């Protein structure tokens, strides 16, 4: 088919459905979308709460747990052990399909009946009670979206890392602190968009460097300070005078680093070992378009934070699978998962939530090890196929309307109003923030944070300037964050790490530190721009907005300048 321009139901902006898109929709037998890619992403992200955690009690075993659901939610919440056990049967909540109600109304009714798992922790994890969206991890604390890692603290989007604190979007790193968009770094601090570096700090866009400081755009260098070459003796002599263990000096160094990043040359996109890819932070991939934070992928479009996914569209947060469409947290080894959330190891599943090891499901919640189920009721194969076809036709005729009057028919992901989370608890708030009034006016839920039950024993201003002056008793203090109403503590393992690496104590809570790191990253959005190198006419798609201050080069000019 020829490309077609449509107007998004939600934002009223035009978007284009390309010929390749129509081919994919035909392949998986779904209608073309009526929401633009950005609004589709917002809907999916509203179903993923990563960072808002609450103390709770398992509604089955009555043990104390940490949960992603606040007390005001209407759901029963089970600890991971109970939810994965055979002590309860999700099929007992089965509903017959009612052709007098819209499908999405019936689905929400089922959602509120079926118990939900407290945290998203797949495979085997040890000592990770305060971590969400993790798999195969050990000793992970207040971190999210972590895979195959050990000793990860206050970090987000971490893959195969060891001993990392306060990091964001890193993989294959060890003994690192405040690394952002980095890979294969060892013993590095305050790094941005660098990989393969050792014993270095405050580097931007550096590759295979060791013992370097406050520099950018370096390749295969050693003993560099502020992009100037030193001898080994001179380098260590200068570094002895640099005191990142002093908070006052660290503040000054961070300001210098921000200035360095803005004044350096920026590649139009961070693409590593890719072929025919458009987006940002993509590695080991082929034919990936309009996607971000992709590791090992092929034939993808409109995807975010996926590992080893192929032949899929509109996926947010999935590991290993194919033929996904409009799915958030596609789970492991899935295939043919459409319009679904929080699922693991599924095949040919639509409009389902929190299902596992199953196939041929439609509109199910919490179903495990089953097939041919609709609204948690199991059918014979032929009965399932006939009823599924009838429901799809019913969804096309009896639409669900949101507060803006947008119609939800078969082929669209769940409305944001069905999300089990308040908008400001979800991943959507981080990437597409709205005010409380804007959120409520759209009919979405909002949760005002409760005041901290802990009384501060010390302010951040009272912390010692130098890490060497921090007493062991600092781990017993409750510290008031100067940027918000929260409090925080210094863990014993954190104190030991900071002492070993000679880094000053943090002056903000972990959430505010995360927000400070988050502003370093570009938005999940592309702009069409020209190369800023004088005389070059090359054009490209980039996540650097036109009004940004950075110097952005096309691939050819970047390679010529850096190498």
Can you walk through the features of this model?
The chain is an alpha/beta fold. The chain has a domain at 132-267. It is 20% helix and 33% strand. It contains twelve helices and 39 strands. Strands 7, 8, 9, 10, 11, 12, 13, 14, 15, 16, 17, 18, 19 and 20 form a 14-stranded mixed sheet that branches. A hairpin with a 2-residue loop joins strand 19 (222-225) and strand 20. The longest helix is centred in the middle third of the chain and has 17 residues, at 247-263. It starts with a strand and ends with a helix.
Largest sheet: 14 strands, mixed
Gross morphology is: globular
User: By helix and strand content, what is the structural category?
Assistant: alpha/beta
The overall pLDDT, averaged over residues, is 96
Number of E-state strands: 39
Task: Tell me the fraction of residues in β-strands, as a range.
Answer: 25-35%
What is the CA-atom radius of gyration, in angstroms? Answer: 25 Å
Helix content: 10-25%
Number of helices: 12
Termini separation comes to 43 Å
Please give the structural blueprint:
Blueprint: E1 4-7, E2 14-17, H1 19-27, H2 37-45, E3 54-57, E4 64-67, E5 77-78, H3 80-83, H4 103-113, E6 116-117, E7 121-122, E8 132-135, E9 138-141, E10 144-147, E11 150-153, E12 156-159, E13 162-165, E14 168-171, E15 174-183, E16 189-192, E17 201-204, E18 210-216, E19 222-225, E20 228-229, H5 232-239, H6 247-263, E21 265-267, E22 271-275, E23 279-289, E24 291-301, E25 304-322, E26 325-328, E27 332-341, E28 344-350, E29 356-362, E30 371-374, E31 377-378, H7 381-397, E32 400-401, E33 407-408, H8 427-431, H9 436-441, E34 458-459, E35 479-480, E36 487-488, H10 492-501, H11 510-518, E37 527-530, E38 539-542, E39 551-553, H12 555-562
Parallel strand pairs: 5-6, 7-8, 8-10, 9-11, 10-12, 11-13, 12-14, 13-15, 14-15, 15-16, 16-17, 17-18, 18-19, 21-39, 22-23, 23-24, 24-25, 25-26, 25-27, 26-27, 27-28, 28-29, 29-30, 34-35
Antiparallel strand pairs: 1-2, 3-4, 19-20, 30-31, 32-33, 35-36, 37-38
């Amino acid at each position: 088919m020829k490309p077609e321009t449509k107007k998004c139901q939600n934002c009223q902006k035009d978007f284009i459905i390309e010929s390749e898109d129509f081919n994919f929709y035909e392949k998986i037998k779904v209608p073309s979308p009526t929401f633009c890619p950005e609004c589709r992403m917002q809907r999916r992200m509203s179903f993923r709460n990563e960072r808002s955690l609450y103390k709770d009690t398992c509604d089955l075993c009555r043990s104390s747990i940490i949960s992603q659901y606040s007390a005001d939610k209407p759901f029963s919440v089970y600890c991971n052990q109970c939810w994965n056990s055979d002590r309860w049967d999700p099929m007992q909540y089965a509903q017959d399909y009612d052709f007098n109600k819209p499908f999405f109304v019936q689905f929400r009714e089922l959602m509120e009946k079926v118990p939900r798992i407290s945290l998203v922790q797949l495979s085997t994890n040890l000592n990770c009670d305060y971590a969400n969206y993790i798999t195969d991890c050990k000793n992970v604390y207040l971190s999210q979206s972590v895979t195959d890692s050990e000793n990860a603290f206050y970090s987000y989007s971490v893959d195969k890392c060891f001993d990392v604190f306060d990091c964001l979007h890193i993989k294959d790193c060890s003994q690192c602190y405040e690394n952002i968009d980095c890979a294969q770094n060892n013993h590095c601090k305050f790094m941005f968009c660098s990989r393969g570096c050792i014993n270095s700090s405050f580097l931007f866009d550096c590759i295979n460097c060791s013992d370097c400081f406050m520099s950018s755009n370096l390749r295969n260098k050693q003993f560099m300070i502020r992009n100037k070459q030193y001898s080994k003796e001179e380098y260590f002599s200068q570094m002895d005078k640099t005191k990142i263990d002093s908070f006052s000096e660290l503040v000054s160094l961070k300001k210098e680093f921000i200035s360095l990043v803005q004044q350096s040359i920026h590649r139009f996109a961070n693409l590593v070992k890719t072929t025919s890819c458009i987006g940002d932070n993509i590695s080991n991939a082929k034919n990936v378009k309009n996607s971000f934070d992709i590791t090992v992928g092929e034939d993808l479009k409109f995807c975010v934070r996926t590992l080893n996914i192929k032949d899929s569209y509109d996926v947010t947060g999935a590991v290993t699978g194919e033929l996904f469409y409009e799915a958030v947290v596609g789970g492991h080894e899935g295939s043919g998962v459409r319009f679904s959330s929080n699922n693991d190891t599924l095949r040919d599943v639509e409009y389902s939530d929190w299902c596992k090891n199953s196939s041929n499901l439609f509109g199910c919640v919490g179903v495990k090890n089953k097939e041919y189920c609709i609204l948690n009721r199991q059918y014979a194969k032929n009965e399932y196929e006939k009823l599924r076809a009838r429901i799809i036709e019913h969804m096309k005729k009896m639409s669900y309307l949101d507060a803006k009057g947008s119609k939800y028919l078969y082929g669209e992901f769940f409305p944001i109003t069905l999300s089990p989370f308040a908008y400001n608890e979800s991943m959507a708030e981080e990437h597409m923030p709205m005010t409380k009034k804007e959120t409520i006016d759209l009919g979405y839920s909002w949760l005002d944070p409760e005041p901290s039950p802990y009384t501060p024993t010390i302010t951040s201003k009272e912390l010692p300037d130098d890490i060497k002056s921090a007493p062991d008793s600092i781990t017993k203090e409750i510290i008031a964050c100067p940027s918000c109403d929260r409090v925080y503590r210094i863990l014993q393992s954190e104190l030991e790490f900071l002492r070993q690496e000679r880094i000053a104590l943090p002056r903000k809570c972990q959430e505010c530190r995360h927000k400070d790191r988050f502003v370093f990253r570009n938005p999940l959005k592309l702009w069409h721009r020209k190369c800023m190198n004088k005389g070059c006419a090359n054009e490209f798609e980039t996540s650097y907005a036109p009004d940004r201050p950075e110097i952005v080069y096309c691939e050819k000019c970047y390679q010529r300048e850096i190498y």
